[in-house]
What does this fold into?
Amino acid sequence: MAGLDVSTLLPRMIDSARGSLKDAWPETKEYAEAEFQKIGESLLYIEQEVLAGRMTQRKAQLHVKMQKNATKMVLLSVEGLGILAAEAAIDAALDVVKETVNTSLGIILL
Amino acid sequence: MKPLLRYGHLFYVMVMLVGLAGCSSVRLIAEYDELIDQQVTEIYRQMESQLVFLERYANAEEAKYEQNTDFYDGVKIDLRSLKVRAAAHPKNDITLQQIDLLVQNVELMQQMHQAGISQNDIPPLRKAFEVSTTAIIKLELAKRRGEKMEQ
It folds into this structure.
């Protein structure tokens, strides 16, 4: 098994999340980085246990699948946070429309 | 394009914007559900209790898979009930996918347990469940949309 380098793995995980999130990235960066760090540490631990002969390949595969699922769950949360950010942006823009219409009419229409 | 038509388009855009602005707010994702938040926290507590137990009694008779089937049955029933609850909310696909992945992780741990769980299995299991449950709760709390954000 080739050595796992968490220091290169983490930036790649973060880059892939950042690339798909763009505008929502600043709000979700801290959360995603912390969670990817935990997953990276687990993958490193699994590798070390296998190399030391304390964990079978079969068990390592099950562990890696679990970490993969956990990663997907983080990415899904980040996607959801991005949707919420977009929703807030739309609401803010519509508030401007509401305010402008009400001000121009001089009555609270909306 | 004739100016009249341009103004016509502008009129329709204005009507649409005013119509949208008249709505209380846009909802692109489901509303916050306190029960989902509480149940996922409870499932995390169950998983952590089981991991503490397995960590302490890894090689003992009571930690063998055959002695722990009720635990897996119980957690899976709780998760499937949670999925039914989540499915009742419109635009809740992300949370539904997350619950499916959490069920898969419980099943993977179950397979691992059937093969015989050791103390060195506990740290990555603990992290996987911590990250997984946090992901669901993080999104659920964000669905509060700035209301009652104090925890």
